[in-house]
Amino acid sequence: MRKVKNLIVGCGLSGIVLAERLASQGGEEVLIIDRRNHIGGNIYDYKDKETGITVHQYGPHVFHTNDKKVWDYLSQFTAWYRFMYRVKAVMDGIEVNIPFNLDSLHKVFSKDLAEKLENKLIEKFGFNKKVPILE
Fold first, then answer.
1. 94 closest CA partner among 109, 111, 114, 113
2. What is the pLDDT of residue 128?
3. Is 43 helix (H, G, I), strand (E, B) or coil?
4. Is the C or the N end of the chain the one with fewer CB within 10 Å?
């Protein structure tokens, strides 16, 4: 039986980054074990053999950072696809932002009612505050 100095259990994002760092920066040998038969955990993608389309096996994933060092590091291992994430809801046929905000009030209510509600909300919670919708 061969001994291994570094054993990583779980090959999700943290596991694969740790393994890569130990191997590339530390020159260490690493053994990774995972219950799944692939690396990457929930960020695992594969190309469909028939269509050539990239499939996100566990659902889509979005990455964002403003840290150039992190961006540069990860860019060694992946190609990036620009993505703009916008969540909208339709209320009585009108498209509104999610999470609901003061702009949403003005889209779904009359001008007078929207202004009254806006004033009451700002008076109670303050301007530019995040408040759960049920409050």
1. 109
2. 86
3. helix
4. N
On whether the CB atoms of residues 88 and 98 are closer than 8 A, the answer is: yes
Helix, strand, coil % over all residues of the chain, rounded to 5 = 35, 15, 50
CB–CB of 29/23 below 8 Å?
yes
pLDDT in tens, 46-68: 999 999 999 999 988 888 899 99
How much is the pTM? 0.57
Per the DSSP assignment, residues forming a β-bridge with 22 are none
The single residue listed with the structure tokens 């020159």 is 27
Do 42 and 58 form a contact (C-beta atoms < 8 A)?
A: yes
Tell me how far apart the alpha carbons of residues 65 and 75 are, in angstroms, rounded to a whole number: 12
pLDDT digits (tens, 9 = 90+) for 73-125: 999 988 888 887 788 888 889 899 888 888 989 999 999 999 999 999 999 99
How far is Cα 7 from Cα 2, in angstroms, rounded to an integer? Answer: 12
